[in-house]
Amino acid sequence: MSRRLRPPVPPSVPVAWMGWEEAGRVPAGEPSQFLAEWFASYVMRPHPELGRTGHVCPYMAQATRLNLVRIAVSPLTPEDGAQIAALLRSAQAVFDAIPCEDGKRVFRSAIIAFPACTGPEGIAALERAQHSLRYRAALRRHMIGLFEPDSAQPGIANRAFPSFRAPLPVIAIRTLVERDGPFMLRNPPMALSYLAAFRRSGLRNLLEAFRGRRADRKLRGPSVPGGAGA
What we know:
The chain is of the alpha+beta class. The chain folds into 2 domains: 18-176, no CATH class; 188-220, no CATH class. Helices cover 42% and strands 10% of the residues. The protein has 7 helices and 5 strands; from the N terminus they run E-H-H-H-E-H-E-H-E-E-H-H. It has helices spanning 20-25, 31-43, 60-65, 81-96, 120-139, 181-186, 191-220, and strands spanning 18-19, 69-73, 109-113, 142-147, 170-175. A 5-stranded mixed sheet has the order 1-2-3-5-4. Strand 2, helix 4 and strand 3 (109-113) form a beta-alpha-beta unit. Helix 4 crosses helix 5 (120-139). The longest helix is centred in the last third of the chain and has 30 residues, at 191-220. The relative contact order is 0.12. Residues 1-7 and 223-230 have low confidence and may be disordered.
């Protein structure tokens, strides 16, 4: 019986990874500097529509202080779907290699900007790459999130708050944490990895998130078809 050969995985285009302070020092107008300014002025600040206290991202400010953020800018385009997926796989290795104490691993993040992937075709290519990797990533306790200018993904505390919007397409890798229960409801296959990581407390969080979603649906009435999926 002949063996079925797998197609070769295309190599990703190399990118230069930089720390937070370095990203803020590049010339004005560069995507990495623009991204650093957006994080500092928005992600690491409270927002009146967020639906809870604290910063938009509760980990980012501490992550930058601890130098646990890595940023890269990719030149890949919507036609480079396989290379985008390969880049995200290599980015997970970069993420795992960020040196830190065990108790501070939750603050690590690896962020890639894709300025050539704006527009529907570019976002679709990024979504395909994200979706192809997110379940295996969860087994490694990684979360892979896509942020883009027109994201319709609802927030957790306030569903009317578009918490996944960014001024340019960005994919971020971070650690799976206990408070990710609501995200698991949006992606049920990932719940197994979540429960393996957090067991009883994870189950409590899932049940609480489920009850909260049911109550929210009762308040909002019938859902409108066509919403975006995470």
